[in-house]
């Protein structure tokens, strides 16, 4: 398969690129390196250089339409985004610029290239708003009622995907991701656990990055025209996660507690049943195995002097 991955130098995108290359696919990466890094693609660039081309490019520019049209990918994995909820609240215009107009450029490229499908990284943590506890774990059939500009732009991108499918027969699959964690994650990202906002009893659905990448690969050929939740169906509190990781790291350091951030959900958890039926997908990485892999990665990076 000829694949193009926007956001391919980021946390999830680079893990997806590694998997696609390992399966023998040819991959174009489009990334402006704003939050991603070429260091995430170092292994890929040294071991599979002939299969991989990296284009440093902003998806908001018309150049991206030309590039996709020229490269003619069979599948476009669209992960490039302004992915910070708080930034979207502070600067909703920038959020919409990247997540709406940037997405439209990518869709125009895919349409003109006659790509078979776009697989989109949607946000299950924001799509359903603040849920009624009786609705947990959340199903895709619930109303989509995002409460942040980021959630709105991610939801609107799904609406565009639906419209492009109707208008131009461009197939799509939208993966509504839970809280993804794993090696290469920006330590200042949403899943940061050293500073805990609130009392730490808020829950999240933590899903391991390799499992998420597996869902992306499956969605390249299955689950057309659908939103599929990609989560574990289990709630884990931030305190539980901290205690598990502190135990594995043999530290008794206490986390710092700060006030709960505005707009932060108290509980979140996604029902992955549809992904099971439509994609044949299930999460298989237990939380302690995933956190051990994260600690191993951090340890190796510290040993390499990477900080
Ligand atoms: N990490 C999570 O828990 C999570 C949860 C739900 C959804 N998502 C979505 O998954 C996708 C990947 O997230 P991630 O956690 O890997 O974040 P990330 O920040 O590591 O990856 C995003 C990538 O997009 C690139 N990018 C940003 N703006 C760009 C632009 N204008 N042009 C080109 N490239 C641009 C960045 O440089 C980065 O490499 C995003 O769409 C995000 O919204 C992530």
Number of helices: 11
Which regions are unreliable across 5 or more consecutive residues at pLDDT < 50? 189-193
Shape: globular
Subunit organisation of the chains: single chain
- Mean of pLDDT: 94
Arrangement of strands in the largest sheet? 3-2-1-4-5-6-11
Sheet having the most strands: 7 strands, parallel
Helix vs. strand class: alpha/beta
Radius of gyration, whole Å: 19 Å
The H-and-E topology, N to C, reads as EHEHEHEHHEHHEEEEEHEEHEHH
Find the count of extended strands (DSSP E, 2+ residues): 13
Helical amount: 40-55%
Bound molecules: nicotinamide-adenine-dinucleotide
Distance between the termini: 37 Å
β-strand percent reads: 15-25%
How would you explain this protein's 3D organization?
This protein has 307 residues and is of the alpha/beta class. It is built from 11 helices and 13 strands. A 7-stranded parallel β-sheet has the order 3-2-1-4-5-6-11, with helices on both faces. Strands 7-10 form a two-stranded parallel sheet. A two-stranded parallel ribbon has the order 8-13. Helix 1 (11-22) crosses helix 8 and helix 3 packs parallel to helix 5. Mean pLDDT is 94; it is low at 189-193. Nicotinamide-adenine-dinucleotide is lined by residues 7, 9-13, 31-36, 58-60, 79-81, 83, 98, 102, 121, 123, 125, 177, 179-180, 186, 190.
């Amino acid at each position: 398969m000829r694949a193009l991955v926007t956001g391919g130098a980021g946390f999830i995108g680079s893990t997806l690129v590694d998997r696609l290359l390992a399966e023998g696919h040819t991959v174009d990466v489009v990334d402006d390196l704003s939050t991603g890094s070429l260091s995430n693609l170092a292994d890929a660039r040294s071991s599979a250089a002939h299969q991989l081309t990296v284009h440093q490019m902003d998806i908001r520019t018309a150049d991206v339409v030309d590039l996709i049209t020229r490269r003619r990918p069979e599948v476009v994995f669209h992960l490039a985004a302004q992915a910070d909820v708080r930034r979207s609240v502070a600067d909703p215009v920038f959020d919409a610029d990247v997540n709406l107009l940037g997405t439209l450029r990518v869709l125009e490229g895919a349409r003109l290239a006659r790509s078979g499908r776009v697989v989109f990284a949607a946000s299950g943590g924001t799509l359903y708003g603040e849920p009624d506890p009786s609705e947990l774990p959340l199903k895709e059939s619930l109303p989509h009622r995002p409460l942040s500009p980021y959630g709105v732009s991610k939801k609107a991108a799904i609406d565009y995907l639906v419209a492009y499918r109707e208008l131009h027969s461009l197939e799509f699959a939208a993966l509504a991701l839970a809280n993804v964690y794993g090696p290469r994650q920006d330590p200042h990202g949403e899943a940061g656990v050293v500073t805990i906002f609130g009392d730490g009893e808020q829950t999240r659905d933590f899903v391991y990055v390799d499992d998420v990448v597996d869902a992306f690969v499956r969605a390249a050929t299955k689950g057309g025209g659908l939103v599929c939740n990609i989560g574990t169906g289990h709630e884990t509190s931030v305190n539980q996660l901290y205690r598990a990781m502190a135990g594995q790291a043999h530290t008794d350091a206490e986390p710092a507690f700060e006030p709960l951030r505005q707009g932060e959900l108290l509980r979140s958890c996604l029902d992955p049943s549809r992904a099971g039926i439509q994609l044949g997908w299930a999460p298989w990485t237990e939380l302690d195995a995933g956190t051990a892999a994260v600690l191993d990665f951090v340890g190796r990076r510290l040993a390499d002097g990477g900080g």
